[in-house]
């Protein structure tokens, strides 16, 4: 078998990432050697491979669904937004510079098509099947000429295309039809059919619409996936972190001890790797919420200042909103604060940045004895060590170089009292360390909170991935999906001129 499939979507956030992961997990459970692929990803939520390459965290999650190690070939182009109109371009895991959206789409993107196709060919030569994820919508006709992630890669590699639609948003039939109708004939012939995502209710009520859609497009629907809570794992877009909402106390598993533990995460601009707090949210009795007002810190037992692609910008935002003063007071009172990556830098005394913001010398909040200088070369590592008497693993993605001038050592950063700072992302996924850290936080906060002794974050992630595989296996036509991956799009699919139904 040398199969492939492109999972496209009618919109951003239609469910492409989780559907791709679900198909990967379904295939690997059938004994298929499978790998994920996304030619180009725009995300602030990234990961570091064992070889020191930076890729989208969604592709790392999909590799886990395949039970393989992620590599740079699985996400050859990563765009990390640094503002409204510019992004850092990461090519094969290494940053190659900043570029405006106009400059990128004006020529650079199309020149990367050869590199992207080479990576896909290398994966297809190694694995039985490669499940590719598109980006946004393939019907973004203003960008089709330079597209390398949707129909550009599908046509270049002759991949069949499955279009996913989020019915929970409404208008899914119009979205399916319009997506196909806006494509050129050469692109349409690769669109095999549709997959409905996030359906609530009685499927029999949907079936007449699916039959009509088939009559209008000549394309079948490969499955209707029901709505399931808690499957948005490793989402791509940190800029939309507010859409994750606030975790209500009523939705949290009951605590092991007498109290819950409340964690407030400052929702800084250009937040990166907000998945750092997922392991905390997985703990019974821990309530995690994202906040943007100083009064929301008042009842928090732990405040986290997370990573950000714009450290100086985030620092200014904290000051403008009064959160900076609240953090300084909190640290002085000995109430727990944790800074991760950019958040660690913000808690320091001084920042010298001629790289990211080009702001030069900027005073930090001064609660940790650290001075930070931004280097042009990005640090991309997978460190391991010990803290609080427990083994810890993590990963680092940063330009800032920290000069720690005091305090107690803490994960290559430092702590002063109950304020901690580190560049290590993912450290809270280490179960023993997370429990030890939460015990310290609870003691400092005066809470009778006890971490669950047997919570395994890795096992919970595996359970989530199996749930995705179950969704595909139980609610998709897997026989038809298998034929599609193995043999490509059916021949003779009709062309739909735009506006045909009228």
From TrEMBL:
PROSITE patterns: GATASE_COBBQ, GATASE_TYPE_1. Keywords: Cobalamin biosynthesis, Glutamine amidotransferase. One of its GO terms (molecular function) is ABC-type vitamin B12 transporter activity. The keyword Zinc does not apply. SUPFAM superfamilies: Class I glutamine amidotransferase-like, P-loop containing nucleoside triphosphate hydrolases. One of its GO terms (biological process) is cobalamin biosynthetic process. InterPro entries: Class_I_gatase-like, CobQ/CobB/MinD/ParA_Nub-bd_dom, CobQ_GATase1, CobQ_N, CobQ_synth, GATase_3, P-loop_NTPase. Transmembrane segments: none annotated. The active site is at 341 (nucleophile), 425. Residues 262-431 form the CobB/CobQ-like glutamine amidotransferase domain. The keyword Ubl conjugation does not apply. Pathway: Cofactor biosynthesis; adenosylcobalamin biosynthesis. Residues 6-238 form the CobQ/CobB/MinD/ParA nucleotide binding domain. It comes from the Bacteria. Belongs to the CobB/CobQ family. CobQ subfamily. Catalyzes amidations at positions B, D, E, and G on adenosylcobyrinic A,C-diamide. NH(2) groups are provided by glutamine, and one molecule of ATP is hydrogenolyzed for each amidation. NCBIfam families: cobQ (TIGR00313), PRK00784.1 (NF001989). This is Cobyric acid synthase.
């Amino acid at each position: 078998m040398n199969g492939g499939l492109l999972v496209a979507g009618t919109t951003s956030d239609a469910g492409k990432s989780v559907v791709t992961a679900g198909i990967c997990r379904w295939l690997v459970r059938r004994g298929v050697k499978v790998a994920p692929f996304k030619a180009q990803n725009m995300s602030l939520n990234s990961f570091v491979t064992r070889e020191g390459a930076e890729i989208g965290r969604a592709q790392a999650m999909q590799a886990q669904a395949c039970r393989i190690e992620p590599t740079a070939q699985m996400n050859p182009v990563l765009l990390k937004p640094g503002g409204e109109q510019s992004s850092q371009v990461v090519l094969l895991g290494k940053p190659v510079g900043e570029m405006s959206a106009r400059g990128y789409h004006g020529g650079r993107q199309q020149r990367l098509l050869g590199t992207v196709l080479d990576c896909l060919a290398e994966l297809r030569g190694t694995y039985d099947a490669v499940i590719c994820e598109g980006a946004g919508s393939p019907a973004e006709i203003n960008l089709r000429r330079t597209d390398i992630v949707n129909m550009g890669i599908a046509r270049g590699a002759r991949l069949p295309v499955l279009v996913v639609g989020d019915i929970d948003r409404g208008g899914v039939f119009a979205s399916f039809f319009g997506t196909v109708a806006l494509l050129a004939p050469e692109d349409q012939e690769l669109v095999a059919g549709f997959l409905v995502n996030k359906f609530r209710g009685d499927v029999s009520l949907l079936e007449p619409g699916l039959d009509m859609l088939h009559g209008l497009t000549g394309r079948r629907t490969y499955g209707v996936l029901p709505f399931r809570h808690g499957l948005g794992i490793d989402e791509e877009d940190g800029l939309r972190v507010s859409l994750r909402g606030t975790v209500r106390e009523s939705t949290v598993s009951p605590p092991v001890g007498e109290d819950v533990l409340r964690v407030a995460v400052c929702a800084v601009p250009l937040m990166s790797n907000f998945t750092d707090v997922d392991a905390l949210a997985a703990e019974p009795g821990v309530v995690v919420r994202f906040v943007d007002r100083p009064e929301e810190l008042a009842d928090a037992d732990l405040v986290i200042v997370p990573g950000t692609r714009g450290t100086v910008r985030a620092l200014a935002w904290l000051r403008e909103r009064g959160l900076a003063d609240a953090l300084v007071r909190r640290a002085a009172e000995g109430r727990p604060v944790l800074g991760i990556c950019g958040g660690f830098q913000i808690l320091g005394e001084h920042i010298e940045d001629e790289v990211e913001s080009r702001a030069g010398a900027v005073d930090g909040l001064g609660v940790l004895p650290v001075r930070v200088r931004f280097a042009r070369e990005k640090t991309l590592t997978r460190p391991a060590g010990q803290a609080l008497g427990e083994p810890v693993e993590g990963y680092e993605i940063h330009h800032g170089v920290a000069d720690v001038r005091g305090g107690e050592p803490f994960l290559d950063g430092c702590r002063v009292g109950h304020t901690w700072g580190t560049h290590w992302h993912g450290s809270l996924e280490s179960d023993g360390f997370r429990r030890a850290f939460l015990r310290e936080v609870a003691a400092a906060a005066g809470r009778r909170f006890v971490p669950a002794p047997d919570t395994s974050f890795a096992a919970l992630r595996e359970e989530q991935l199996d749930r995705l595989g179950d969704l595909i296996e139980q609610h998709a036509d897997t026989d038809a999906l298998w034929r599609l991956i193995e043999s490509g799009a059916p021949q003779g699919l009709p062309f739909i001129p735009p506006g045909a139904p009228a």
